[in-house]
Amino acid sequence: MEYTYKDLTVGMFEADVCDGCGRVFFTEKGSDGIDGCAMAMGIWGQGVDREGLRFDDRTRFRVPEEAVGSLSLGYGDVPTLRPQGR
Predict the structure, then answer these.
(1) Bridge partners for 58 per DSSP
(2) At 39, phi and psi to the nearest 5?
(3) pTM across the whole model
């Protein structure tokens, strides 16, 4: 069963689907797979602290290469930053 997080496809994982209501229940193996892939993609788990660099009226942040790939960021793309917990 496909697992997505905030419109980002994490992958296909083992799950059971209720015949009555169609609700999806990921198995323990599937849940462990989701955790591993999501952490490797950098979308949850231990965060990476980055120091902002101030240039004129702009602040710039360095993004780890593995996060760039998993977030599909390209040169010139502008990501949205939100306060933690929102």
Answers:
(1) 55
(2) -70, -40
(3) 0.51
